[in-house]
Amino acid sequence: MADKINTILNEREILDRLKDLDQGAFTTIYNAYSKQIYRYAIRFVKSNDIAEDAVHDIFVKLWNNAADLDIQVSIQSYLYRLAHNHLLNLIRREAVEGRYIDEIMNNATEFSQNTEETIQYRETLAKTQQAIDNLPPQRKLIFEMGRGEGMSHKQIARELNIADSTVNNQIVKALKSIKEHLLATGAIGAMTAFILLLKK
Predict the structure, then answer these.
(1) Residue 89 vs residues 15, 83, 176: alpha-carbon distances, Å
(2) Residue 122 contacts by C-beta under 8 Å, 6 or more apart in sequence?
(3) 33 contacts 25 by C-beta, under 8 angstroms
(4) What's the whole-number mean pLDDT along residues 20-45?
(5) CA end-to-end distance (rounded Å), the chain
(6) Which pLDDT value is given to residue 66?
């Protein structure tokens, strides 16, 4: 399909149509490159679900910015660069969210017994534990083995006789569920304050 863009339709023409918000041009690009971008993403994140979400987000960004595009390279090169930056940001964000939860679970003793911060922190800790308890049994087990017992993904996979990618998938989904629970219960703002406090 990618060859069709180069041989049947002029690439510059497709980009001009895309800038005019031509859905047909967008569909042509999506059909030509989405599978390539998915294969690229899976190398980064080792998770089918996350890779599929990443492809969706990348092409949504392409469409949302279509009118302002000024692409001086090939469409393929541009999409790979877009994907690379998106995936790096995704990995960084997941790492930060994981560290947030680690800090909450592991640093309650940092706070004195009679401060407002302690009360808020304990509430956040309770909400975090509630979110963990609400995880599906296998996901909870994998999360606790990784976060609580400090086991690597490979160690967990060996212990449970499952694939490394399954462990990674479950950890990521657990972090997402916990974050959504903390957002829903209003604890996410307190989390940021506590992390800043811990870093002082």
Answers:
(1) 26, 10, 16
(2) 108
(3) no
(4) 87
(5) 54
(6) 85
CA distance 181 to 173: 12
Decide if pLDDT at 18 tops 70: yes
Cα(96)–Cα(100) distance, rounded to whole angstroms? 6
The pair of structure tokens assigned to 53 is 């979400």
CB atoms within 10 A of CB 6: 13
What would the mean pLDDT of 180-199 be, rounded to a whole number?
Answer: 55
Is the model more confident about 73 or about 56? 56
List Cα–Cα distances, 168 to 79, 111, 154, 164, in angstroms.
25, 32, 10, 6
Question: Which of 170-179 are b and which e, b meaning 16 or more Cβ less than 10 Å from the residue's Cβ?
Answer: bbbbbbebbb
pLDDT at 106 over 80: no
Q: Which two tokens stand for residue 117?
A: 């911060």
Q: Are 41 and 51 in contact (CB under 8 A)?
A: yes
